[in-house]
Amino acid sequence: MISLREKLAHVPSATARGVLNVLLPLRCMCCDTRVGSEDGLCPVCWNSMPFIEKPVCHRLGIPFSYDVGEEAWSPRAIASPPVFDRLRSVAFYEGSAQSLVLAFKFGGRRELARPMGKWMVSAGREFLSPDSLIIPVPLHWLRLLSRRFNQSAALAQVIAKECGAAYEPDLLTRHKRTRQQVGLTAKERQKNVRSAFRIAAGRSGDLDGRHVVLIDDVMTTGSTIAACTKTLLSAGASSVDVLTFALADPSRSDQEETAIL
Ligand SMILES: [Zn+2]
């Protein structure tokens, strides 16, 4: 459901917006505490927001403990290069980032698409361009029926609008209904999503030579992202970069990566 604040978000006059702020005080996106700015976090939630900041691995977007230059790869990327070109995420899937994703995906807080999408635009600035195709990871239509919205598509729509690129929610489709990935091992996840994705009938030519930015809310083991990327590349996309709001990093306990040049 669209909130009253969202309905009135485009009120042009500063005075009218001031009145609106008195009537509907601004709240922290995460915990509902009063805050001073729209789409903001209170100090407590801000402090528990595990932002991913540069320098990062050129391929996997995981932070380095020291600056080693723009294009350095982490040992993990060298040992097992991803099928996509680059991954960038706003934050690790912990603390406030996890609370926001859960509220957005399962708590009916659809208005979070706009601030979360704007953060993603900042995180993906190096590869987002008006010539990119912005494609969300699709849901199977049965899951779409039960959940009633695709959270990745809502984020992709905001991102495409912000960077003036084409939003393409119907190009990539999920034709196989896969089990929920939660609780599966990495191998089981890969098997679960293998051949789950297809290009929409008659549209493979639309990808020819195009740069794609694939959008998802959370990157976990990457098996879904890998399956989507392979499908897009086989259909003629020239390159695929991935942009997610959160990154669930199983090696987070190892702390930051050491760079290999
Ligand atoms: Zn808060």
Explain how this protein is built:
The chain has 261 residues and is of the alpha/beta class. It has two domains: 1-40, no CATH class; 48-254, Rossmann fold. It has ten helices and seven strands. The chain has helices at 4-7, 14-23, 43-47, 75-79, 95-106, 113-123, 141-147, 151-163, 186-193, 223-234, and strands spanning 87-92, 133-136, 166-167, 172-174, 197-199, 211-219, 239-247. The strands form two sheets. Strands 1-7-6-2-3 form a five-stranded parallel beta sheet. The chain has a two-stranded antiparallel sheet with strand order 4-5. Helix 10 (223-234) links the parallel strand 6 (211-219) and strand 7 (239-247). The longest helix has 13 residues, at 151-163. It is globular. The protein starts with a helix and ends in a 14-residue tail after the last strand. The protein binds zinc ion (ZN). Residues 28, 30-31, 33, 41-42, 44-45 line the site of zinc ion. The site of zinc ion has 8 residues, from helix 3.
